[in-house]
């Protein structure tokens, strides 16, 4: 990425602005900014290069490019991130949904019968909960302990006409009833992990990333408590860190889950584990 700055002070042509953004942050991200922030379609980018943009519009684009050059995630600048086929609103109050988390949704859809009751713990933008409720007829409850995250989730539910019950809760504290499947992508990064000072993670809420000193604290609490909230034979499906497979498998086994299985993500990294509650 080049780091030159751009001090435009007059109105400019669309093509000129796009080319400058492209030179600074690359074609893909420049396209995202121009289409999202200026409301210009991909086609117009090429057919209306001569369209004159007003100074405020030019400045909006320039500011966005500068934010990107400072390392801010493109999703926070545009306010959107794709998750499966859903265009989801995101803000710095929520984790930016990851591609690998789409795997959790696949696994839950495989394991859960129609009209099943599903709990998404730590819903953030609502990515998992909304995807589940859109792709299958399920009763979905979404939990987060952060009110701002639940507001983002509510906006996304509204935008996608998804029926999700939202509960503000410290994990299971305010959760009532039992579920056929419990799914969670909890914070699982160790507090001293140097990755927290790199890339997108620098801009994301620590409360969505850090799982205590070891990184395993939330995973342990969820794996332990979920057994009390699952129907007999229900499933717990969780995402974990690249190096946590052995510890997480032991937690599942120690708590008495059966049929423990795992799946690797697109980079061949162990990422998702699930197990069955006893009783059926
Ligand atoms: C890794 S993010 C996952 C967000 C979303 N599910 C996703 O996959 O994009 C973890 C989420 O757990 C929430 N969280 C952290 N501690 C929590 C707690 N004690 N109780 C409930 N939610 C919590 C955070 O606010 C955050 O939204």
What does this 3D model show about the protein?
The chain has 280 residues and is of the alpha/beta class. The chain folds into two domains: 12-70; 93-276, Rossmann fold (3-Layer(aba) Sandwich). It has helices at 14-25, 27-38, 42-47, 55-69, 74-78, 102-111, 127-135, 147-159, 206-209, 217-226, 245-254; strands at residues 12-13, 52-53, 80-83, 86-89, 117-121, 139-144, 164-168, 179-184, 230-239, 258-264, 270-276. The strands form three sheets. Strands 7-6-5-8-9-11-10 form a seven-stranded mixed sheet, sandwiched between helices. The protein has a two-stranded antiparallel ribbon with strand order 1-2. Helix 8 (147-159) links the parallel strand 6 (139-144) and strand 7. Helix 1 crosses helix 2 (27-38) and helix 6 (102-111) packs across helix 7 (127-135). It is elongated and about 70 Å long. The relative contact order is 0.10. Residues 1-8 have low confidence and may be disordered. The site of S-adenosylmethionine has 22 residues, from helix 7, strand 6 and helix 9.
Give helix % range: 25-40%
**What is the CATH architecture term of the largest domain?**
3-Layer(aba) Sandwich
Bound compounds, each kind once, are: S-adenosylmethionine
Q: Report low-confidence residues grouped into runs of 5 or more.
A: 1-8
Question: Which CATH top level class of the largest domain fits?
Answer: Alpha Beta
Helix-strand pattern, N to C?
EHHHEHHEEHEHEHEEHHEHEE
Number of helices: 11
Mean pLDDT: 95
- The end-to-end distance, rounded to whole angstroms, is 56 Å
Report the CATH superfamily of the largest domain.
Vaccinia Virus protein VP39
For the largest sheet, list the strands in their spatial order.
7-6-5-8-9-11-10
Query: C-alpha Rg, in Å?
Result: 21 Å
Largest sheet, described in full? 7 strands, mixed
């Amino acid at each position: 990425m080049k780091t030159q700055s751009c001090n435009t002070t007059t109105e400019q042509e669309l093509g000129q602005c796009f080319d400058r953004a492209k030179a600074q942050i690359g074609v893909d991200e420049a396209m995202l900014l121009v289409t999202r922030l200026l409301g210009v379609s991909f086609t117009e980018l090429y057919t209306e290069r001569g369209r004159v943009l007003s100074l405020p519009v030019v400045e909006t684009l320039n500011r966005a490019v500068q934010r990107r050059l400072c390392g801010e995630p493109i999703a926070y600048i545009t306010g959107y991130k794709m998750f499966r086929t859903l265009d989801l609103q995101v803000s710095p109050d929520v984790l930016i949904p990851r591609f690998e988390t789409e795997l959790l949704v696949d696994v839950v859809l495989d394991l859960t019968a129609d009209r099943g009751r599903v709990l998404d713990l730590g819903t953030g933008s609502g990515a998992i909960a909304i995807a589940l409720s859109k792709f299958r007829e399920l009763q979905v409850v979404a939990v987060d302990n952060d009110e701002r995250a639940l507001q983002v989730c509510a906006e996304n539910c509204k935008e996608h006409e998804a029926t999700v019950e939202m509960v503000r809760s410290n994990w299971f504290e305010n959760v009532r009833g039992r579920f056929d499947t419990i799914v969670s992508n909890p914070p699982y990064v160790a507090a001293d992990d140097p990755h927290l000072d790199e890339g997108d993670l620098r801009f994301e809420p620590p409360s969505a990333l850090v799982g205590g000193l070891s990184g395993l604290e939330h995973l342990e609490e969820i794996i332990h408590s979920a057994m009390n909230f699952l129907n007999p034979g229900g499933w717990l499906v969780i995402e974990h860190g690249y190096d946590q497979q052995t510890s997480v498998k032991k937690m599942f086994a120690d708590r008495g889950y059966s049929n423990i299985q795992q799946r690797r993500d697109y980079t061949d990294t162990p990422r998702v584990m699930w197990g069955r509650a006893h009783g059926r």
